[in-house]
Structure formats: C-alpha cells, structure tokens
C-alpha cells in the first residue's frame, strides 16, 4: 500500500461509510466553489473547475450538489477559503504533507497539530519534508478503464511522464504544468478520470513495519476525517501482509 493514494481502501469500517461519503462530498464541494471563485464559473474556460467537477462526478456526487457549489461562488455568498500546506513526520519517520482549504487557519492548525501529536507524529515547519517530494500532476482511472498496456499507450500519447497500474487503479503522473492538457487528452481516449489533481510524489519511500503501521493509518485517517483537510500525501509503503493483518 503506497502512501500517496491507497488509504481509501484500507480501513473501511461499515458504520463509518455514510460519514465518510458525506465528508467526501463536502470536500469536493469546497474545491468546486474555490475553483469557480478563482476563475470563470464555466468548466470549459476553467481547467481547475473542470477537474474538480470530473472528480465529483467520479464519486457519484449528484448534479444538484455540483451546481450548488458553483452557484455559491457566483453568488459571492461563500466563505473566503485559504489554501494551506502542513508538513510533518508520522510513526517510523514517515514524511507527511497535508493540504487544506480552510476559512479558519487557527482551527485547522490546531486540529492538524493534535492529530500528529496523538498518533505518534510531530508537525514540522513549512518545507520540513516537501524537499523529499516532487510536485507533479496525478490522474487516476479505475482498473476497468482498460488493461495496463492500453492505459500506458494512451498516457504516452497524451504526454504523461509515468504510469503505475495495479489491480485497483491506474495512476498517471504528469509534469505539473501539463496536468490539464494531459487530462483532457486522456478523457478523449479513456473517458472522464476518477481524479486529476496536483500531487506530491515521494522521491524515495519508507517501508513501515507492523509496529508502526496501525498508528500511521490512524494518523492518516484522523487527518482525512477533518473537514478542512483536502488531501494527505506520504512517502510510506506498507507491505501487503501487514495491511492484511490491519484489515
């Protein structure tokens, strides 16, 4: 299990599914509103908004919800969200980057700091770990979008830098400034992506042992559950056999 994407498949507790879905819709709505406010409210003229809407559709978010999020930006009745990045270390020396969209910087900083301190980690200064990651574009497709060879071929033609496929999904990495162009080219070949965003790709990874894995997963889960947190990235690798024990 790699640190940059798969934790959505880890600890699917039955009782928490509805809460997770509601939280996910809230985060997707917030990104749509911010994207629409920062640029044109027309997805054809606003690449960030187009990606945000596609990501929402991929998670089966109702059209009414999507339109409401856009209307909030048009109407000007939305909070002033600020994009903030936090960096720190988790159990086993794992490097973690947290990206947030918040209307209350103090609340978010307190929640993130508490999550780290209660789950075997510590929050660092800005730039503490990001030097060990590359800022890139990440486009994800479900495994059903095509076999690994077909997706690789399509990604290569679209101008992507790297492709990683497994039984769950295809991850297509691009240069940061090529994300929108590659995503549009892939959409013509493979249909709408499950997700397309700027990402932090670790230059090297840290294998997490069984002793630290449970605490690390709890830290990631706690951060993800916070409404202000949009994404959590890490440089960890958890062996399959350890994941099975945790599952």
Please provide a written account of the structure.
This protein is an alpha+beta fold and 247 residues long. It has a domain at 82-131 and 204-246: 2-Layer Sandwich (Alpha-Beta Plaits), CATH 3.30.70. Helices cover 43% and strands 23% of the residues. The chain has helices spanning 17-38, 47-58, 63-75, 105-118, 148-158, 179-190, 210-225, 240-246, and strands spanning 82-89, 95-102, 122-124, 133-142, 162-165, 169-174, 195-202, 206-207, 229-234, 236-237. The strands form three sheets. It has a four-stranded antiparallel sheet with strand order 3-1-2-9. Strands 5-6-4-7 form a four-stranded antiparallel sheet. A hairpin with a 5-residue loop joins β1 (82-89) and β2 (95-102). α1 runs antiparallel to α2 (47-58). The protein is globular, with a radius of gyration of 18 Å. 37% of the residues are buried. The model is unreliable at 1-16 (pLDDT under 50).
Summarize the structure in short:
The chain is of the alpha+beta class. Helices cover 43% and strands 23% of the residues.
